[in-house]
TrEMBL record:
Organism: Motiliproteus coralliicola
UniProt name for this protein: FAD-binding FR-type domain-containing protein
Matching SUPFAM superfamilies: Ferredoxin reductase-like, C-terminal NADP-linked domain, Riboflavin synthase domain-like
Assigned keywords, A-Z: Luminescence, Oxidoreductase
Family statement drawn from the similarity comment of this UniProt entry: Belongs to the Fre/LuxG FAD/NAD(P) flavoprotein oxidoreductase family.
GO biological process: bioluminescence
InterPro entries (alphabetical): FAD-bd_FR_type, FNR_nucleotide-bd, MRET, OxRdtase_FAD/NAD-bd, Riboflavin_synthase-like_b-brl
Domain of life: Bacteria
Length: 262
């Protein structure tokens, strides 16, 4: 879920049975646009997986959803990448609380996006598309994939082609370049394509160079609704089945159902 999306504020009561008080380990600036947050979870916090998102809840009930940015097999820590949105008082208040207080309210993880990398089909390509801080969700999914890669070391599982496309307005907004470079040096099956929106790049442009080799791939789209739907339409026009495409957008911003008369 892209942290910069303009989503409706969800009102919650001051106390809720499914609201957990989580510790703030750290909240530091990755750059001027994005804050990296690490939360420690209470022992009774429900399990979660890479690809899901959580809601951070303020004392007055206002909340915002943020994608989980890490894969943690023990389920004790959650990482977030919160993009600053100066026009959103709620986002500003959340960042202020994270950087000044020791705890914050957190709802259980939600979302159906999950890694579909099956050891029984080890050569299935995996394609990850991120826009801005949508990289958070992609990072968690890739960490899960690399973990499985290590679990099946020595077999063909780690030879599956993996593509990462990360688009931003400027190169400076790709805030974890060092991490991406470390992946590239370690995982020979990973290909990385940085995209610059202001130069006319798009996910479709990035995909066009290798889409013919990825007819059976799994696709993970992490960006705004307009970008996700435009790209999913492109993928389906290239023969990719809708069942091969995952995005949170399909759940929280579904397309209107057209009547037969339209």
């Amino acid at each position: 879920m892209n942290s910069a999306m303009a989503l409706e504020i969800t009102e919650h009561p001051a106390f809720s049975e499914d609201l957990y008080r989580c510790g703030v380990q750290s909240a530091s600036n990755l750059d001027e646009h994005c804050v990296q947050v690490f939360l420690s979870l209470p022992a009774d916090y429900p399990s979660f997986h890479a690809g899901q998102y959580i809601e951070l809840v303020l004392a007055d009930g206002q909340s915002r959803p943020y994608s989980i940015a890490n894969f943690d097999p023990q389920g004790r820590t959650i990482e977030l990448h919160i993009e600053r949105n100066w026009s959103s008082s709620t986002t500003t208040a959340i960042i202020d609380q994270l950087q000044s207080q020791h705890t914050i309210g957190v709802k259980p993880a939600q979302g159906d996006v999950a890694l579909r990398a099956n050891p029984s089909s080890p050569l299935t390509p995996q394609v990850f598309l991120a826009a801005g801080s949508g990289f958070a969700q992609v990072k968690a999914l890739l960490q899960h994939f690399f973990h499985q890669d290590q679990q099946h070391a020595g077999g063909s599982y780690g030879k599956a082609p993996v593509y990462l496309l990360w688009g931003t307005d400027t190169p400076a907004q790709r805030y974890l370049k060092v991490l991406v470079r470390s992946w590239l040096s370690r995982y020979q099956n990973l290909q990385y394509r940085p995209l610059n929106w202001q130069q006319g790049d798009s996910w479709e442009h990035g995909l066009a160079t290798f889409i013919q080799d990825c007819k059976q791939a799994q696709f993970y789209l992490c960006g705004s609704p307009s970008r996700v739907y435009q790209t999913s339409d492109y993928l389906e026009s290239q023969g990719i089945a809708s069942s091969q495409i995952q995005s949170d957008v399909f759940a929280y911003a579904p397309r209107p159902v057209q009547s037969k008369s339209d």
